[in-house]
Amino acid sequence: MPAWQLFFAAVRLQEALELTATATLRRIAGQHGLPYADSTTRSELIERIGERLLDAAYLDEQVRGLGDGERGVLLAVRARAGELRRPQIDRAQPGAAETLSERGLLFRVFATAGLLRGEVFTAPDELLDLLPAPPPAEPPPATESPPPAERRTSDPVFSLFALVSALTRRGGHLEREVRGWLVHGADGDPAVSPSLSRLLDRPGELAQRLWRAYLTDRGWSELAQAGISGHDDLADLVQLRQAVLDAFERLPENTWIRLDAFMEWVEQTRPALVREQLNARGLVELQSVPWEGLESPLLRYCLLGPLYWLGAVAVSADARQFARRPERAKATAVEACTWQQAPSDRPDPLHSSTRMLPKQMGILPEPAGMLQESVGVLLAPARARLGSLLQAERYLVLKERGRLSRYELVQSNVAGALSSGGSIGECRQLLTRLTQTELPEAITERLAAWERRFGALVVRPAVLIEARSQGELDDALAGAQLRPFLRVRLGPTVAEVAAADALELAARLHEAGHLPRVDAALRLVSEPRRAYPGLVDEQVLEFLLVSLLAFRQARPEQLAQLEGSLSLLDRLERQFPRERLAELHAAADHLAGELATAAATAPGPRRRAKRARRRRT
């Protein structure tokens, strides 16, 4: 052999011998007939064994003298790049690990890096050179491809779009699964992040990111998902996933293979595919599990699960056949959306014969039934600009999700989008980008009509300041400090102020010497930690206070059991002036007396039982 190879082999052998126990070195020397005595040092043993095993002719003779079992173990080590775990050796030939180790043909080492970590058995390079190279593994036999109608494929970009679309339109329960792609709006509901919209318009780049994320995800355990073990610390999840992908990528593309044939092929060519990746704990827990309980369900899950979801495989309808698809991240051409005439039993209000009527042009309100009438149906293929489609969904109503999704453009959805910050210009721009052409004339005119009508009526919060006479209101608003709070004079004794300025106006009135009575609901709203949701007026607060006061008199022990009831009662009493509070206490006393009278005259359990027996007789 060349000098450099001899030097490298000697170094490998020297390192292996130095890691071997002295007692084992003495047994190796005895197996090869090397002389040694009790006085022989460890260094002398290593030197004599190294010289003997580096003799290529002698080593070849030793290999030829092995039995079929031991030779098969060495061939398996050769096929695994010179390393093999103890369980795989024992399964192939029990006792072969000890036999080959005592002959110096296998060495027990502890690996801290690489695919195999922990205790492994390795063979010197010069020994591996004497063994024949493993024959190239033929792929599993191909089968007849199923009919096109029976084939199932998955597009990861479209799947992500459909998932995020459902979350942002309905606020579903899967938010945690796509939290990184979403942001929260001011109302707390999930919304689409700008980065996701841009990525959805570039499906090739997004598919690559999804694939890379799967390859490096340490939080996803195939062992747990396949129902094998609930522990995620039995193996390095990334290396286990990569080992399965290495076997998968050896398959030819666009060739249909039976799933059971693939299992048999992996079992023959890589029988320790999964067990090689297990750590010490994983070997203890799963080593006794047969192939049908470990490798088979794991491979099946990986093929029909993540690899199918990410678009790497196509699967038959019965999940018995699959085919490796071409490159997953290959960019695909964007398809344009198309318009379909909306079904309607009555003439189109934008038809040329009636186009100039005021009501149908949006000058007058449309009938209530037209609020849900579809102006047009947008057909969106799975290869559309999904980012733009996701943004346009706020203006559309999804009728059917599929490879060709159906959306309808209706006034009610457009109105809701406009109220939440959208615009007709944005809607028109998104629809034009999706269809890659000008919008139909009917849709353009209807959008223009909605744009003219939007804002004709305004609903906004307002606060009124009322006076008993016109003179008192004029006197209150005469000061220069109070005049800026006035929004509009609604009548001689009524004026409107902004809702946000109500409490500040009350404070200024107090400073000016007036004694305004402020509605209790305004004071509650001014304290966010004590504010009640919804519209709470003074009548609601009075009813609540009277009920609590009467309940305290009639059932004081039960009221005390209600958490927070006493503090709420105290806060409510501070919201009303003394005269009004006295009236509310009187009403509560009257209500408590009626409750006590009703409880005293109500029949007890015995009296009710007697009445029931009388009715039966």
Structural overview:
This protein has 617 residues and is an alpha+beta fold. The chain folds into 5 domains: 3-130, no CATH class; 140-156 and 188-332, no CATH class; 338-453, no CATH class; 463-518; 538-601, no CATH class. It has 29 helices and 16 strands. Strands 4-8-9-7 form a 4-stranded antiparallel β-sheet. Strands 10-11-13-12 form a 4-stranded antiparallel β-sheet. Strands 1-3-2 form a 3-stranded antiparallel β-sheet. It is elongated and about 125 Å long. The model is unreliable at 1-11, 170-179, 345-370 and 528-535 (pLDDT under 50).
Approximately how much beta-strand content do the residues carry? 5-15%
Structural class: alpha+beta
- Percent of residues in helices comes to 40-55%
Please tally the β strands and state the result. 16
Average pLDDT across residues?
76
The main sheet orders its strands as 4-8-9-7
Separation of the first and last Cα atoms: 115 Å
Most strands sheet: 4 strands, antiparallel
Radius of gyration from the alpha-carbon trace, in angstroms: 41 Å
Low-confidence residue ranges: 1-11, 170-179, 345-370, 528-535
Shape category = elongated
Please indicate the count of domains.
5
Number of helices: 29
Keywords for this structure?
617 residues; alpha+beta; 5 domains; 4-stranded antiparallel sheet
